[in-house]
Each structure stands twice: as C-alpha cells, then as structure tokens.
C-alpha cells in the first residue's frame, strides 16, 4: 500500500473516530440534561470530561441535542417541590410545534395564588393565551400556585423555575424567547420575578397587578432599579377595584421609570379587574415578544439583599451593611393602605349548604327580615395577620352568611357590601362554623402606611458594564461579587480587566473551563447562556 493510501485510510479513521466521539459526547450531554439528581450530574460531568472536550466542543454538542416529537394539546405533569410536595402544572403545545425548530415559551402565572388547594381541572384550552400559542407557535407553561407555594415565596418561585427546566428537557425551547406573563396575583408575581430572578426570561408582561405584592405578602426585598435588566410590558385599568391604575399604580410606574426601568405602561379605561382588553392586546403582546429576545446586555444594574442571587453575568456574594455609597439612591415610596378588604380567599367549590348539619333554628333566626338564598361564602384561607378576618378570628372553613342586616348569598354580595364601606367602619358578621352560628361585632382596620418595597435587611448594589475585555463597575455595600464569563462577552486570548470603584481589582488571562460550563448547563439547561468560567472579586 502506498504512502498516499495509508494517509487516506488514517484520515478516514480519524474522521470516523471524531464523529463517533462527537456522537457519544452529544449523547452524554443529553443524559446530563435529563439528570435531576446531583450525584448523577457529577458522574456524567466526569464522564464527559473524560473525552477531554474543549468548551467549544461542548457548546457545539449541546446545540446538536435532538428532541422527540410531541402531540399538540394539553399535558399535565407534576414537579416535586422543595417542600417535598408534588404539584401539578400544565403545558400547552401548539399544533405547529416542530421538535427540530426552537420554539418560544410563555410562562403564565394565574391569579388568586393564595388559595389553599391547587386549581382543579383547569381547561387551559379555552384560555385566551392559547390563541396566542396557536397563532404564533408558542408553547405555554401554566404553573399552579397555592398558599405556601405562591409567586413570592421560596417554594413557589423555585417550583416555577424547576418547571421551566423540566419543560426545556422535553421540548426544543428557544432559550432567548422565554417570557413571563400573569394576571392579578400572577401579574404581581411577574413583577416579583422581574426584580428577583430575571435571568431565565426575555421579558415580562404583568396585567392588572401590583409591583409591591411580593414585598408586602412574601417579605421579598425588591428593587425598581432591577427592572432595567429586562423589558416589562405593564397594563392596568382605571376601574380596577384592587389596583386602580391612575390613583395607585401610575405613581409607582413613574418611580420605576425614574429608577431606569425598561418599562412600557398602558392604561385601559372603563374596565375593572378583568381581562376584557385581551382581544386588543393580543397582537400587541405578540409584537412585544417578537421584538424583544433576551440578549447578553453589556450594561447591568443589580441590587439584592440576598447574597448569591444572580442576574445574568453577575451575582452579589456578600453584603457589608456598612452604609451605602454617596451616589446610591433607594427608589421607594410610602403607601397608604385604605382598601376595604376582609382578608380572605373564597372557596370556589362551595356551592350548597348542608342544612342537616347546622343549627337551623339559630340560623333561620338570622333572616327574619330578608331571606337567605345562597350557599354563603366559605373562607378557603385567611390572608395576612392584620386584616379584618384575621383580627376577628375567622378561620378557613367558616361560612359568611350575613353582614350587617344583609344576607351574603354569594361572593358578589360581599363585593357589593364593601362598596359602601370605608376603613374604620364597624361591621356585624354572622358565620357558620362546624354547623353552629357565630356572631361578631368588629370593624375594618384603620388606614395604615407601609413601604412599597420592604427594607428589613441591608442590600448591596452594583452598576456597570463590560467593553473591550474590561468590566467597569461601581458598588455600594458589596463585600464580594462574581462575574460569569460568556464567549460573546470577552476574548479569552487577552487579559480580562475588572475595575471596581475606580481601581483595578483584576487583570489576568481567564481560561474557559469545560467543567464549569457543564455544571452551569446541568443547573439551568440553557442552550444559549454558556458561561465558561467566572471571576470572584472580594473588596
């Protein structure tokens, strides 16, 4: 055999061997994508590193991962949450879904999240956003929340993020087109994610929500400056009895704009706490999402009171509490809570009274002047600790049957009753508890003041940007932070320079780490956000 033939055979063997190794590497990466247990992830990472791949090899192999086909329609799955409770969630797959094409994902957070039980048999096919999914080819993820697993506590928020990861395991998701929307409590939750966990998302669409709910109800430390990192498309309505746009929400949006938020704000008139503007908004929502893919923004503003919380390429690792820098400004405001609210979530499944189990003599004696014609309003959950229900001692399971001299047949009667009341007004309440009549003479709490954003812990803030392999940052109350490096951010054949508060804190070559890249992929299953190493700075 001549030398030319030998070289040809060797080259063919080399190409075949490289192809097989690439296929094996892609297979191992797909196993890693599906691995949920930490020990299994570490084992697979070590197996992959045994192939001695470069970071570029890994990125290319991750992009070559293939997905199985799925039938269109509704899928119902479960996720084991960090409180060891399995909770359902829904995924809607449009009829146009193609596993070979990256597909945008819309995460929708529902309202009334403080209910005690998860929503049963939600007919998501009839929901308006499914129209968007079909027309624009979006997948839609519907997490289910409840009291103890809401949009502003660690269980509920982690549950949502885990469900996004699981959806990315099953479907070919466009990681740069993951959006979050929500109505009412879901909108308030969208604000909360935008200020606390923006990294996974391209943008947020809160409809008829309140940006301070996560702080007031969940104790979350939220900051308007963080809304500079993602576009937020906000809608409120002027006749919303919970969050009226012009008198309540508009001043907050003005403050957010002053803080540098990337904000588009719209107000619909003549509409209450309802989604009646959906038909008008659908094409505008679609246009917003089409024109705002996630990008690796060079500029960042990030504030947190929770060490380790990350926004894209930056995390604040320690907070000094030594006092903020002179340039620092806290964009907060004092609010007056003058809403007339009982402070309970109603039981949607309560439709009739069992008259055989109640004291009928005492019960009928309540309605000598006006007849009782309904099932009453059963309390599913008491909200807060300073609301009328909490202060009066009402509990889950109580059935409100009378307010003052009016029978409360349904929840609409309670809403109508509230319209004639103010904070501080007295109220007579009659309820059924375990079949017995109980009566209370109480009053709505007086108006109170509170901060839009709670401030019970010190926070740290970092502002800055990267340009030409140099990070220029200023900090306030930050003791340490970490920069996460993506191949599109820096050139790794040159020194990476980090200037902090006018001084050079780092000036060295950084080498891409395949192990670091694999660990991050195992955690976020993001096929675009390829961080290949990090720089830790202690001040």
Tell me what the structure shows:
The chain has 539 residues and is of the alpha+beta class. It contains 13 helices and 25 strands. The strands form five sheets. An eight-stranded mixed β-sheet has the order 1-2-4-3-5-6-7-8, with helices on both faces. Strands 13, 14, 15, 16, 17 and 18 form a six-stranded antiparallel β-sheet that branches. A five-stranded mixed β-sheet has the order 9-20-21-23-24, with no helix packed on it. A hairpin with a 2-residue loop joins strand 20 (460-467) and strand 21 (470-476). Helix 1 packs antiparallel against helix 2. Residues 8-20 have low confidence and may be disordered.
Question: Tags for this entry?
Answer:
single chain, 539 residues, alpha+beta, six-stranded antiparallel beta sheet, 13 helices, 25 strands, 28% helix, globular
Global structural class: alpha+beta
- Through-space gap between termini: 67 Å
The coarse overall form would be: globular
Low-confidence stretches: 8-20
Strand content: 25-35%
Strand order in the largest sheet: 1-2-4-3-5-6-7-8
Helical residue percent band: 25-40%
Radius of gyration: 27 Å
Number of helices: 13
Please provide the count of β strands: 25
Summarize the main sheet.
8 strands, mixed
Mean pLDDT: 92
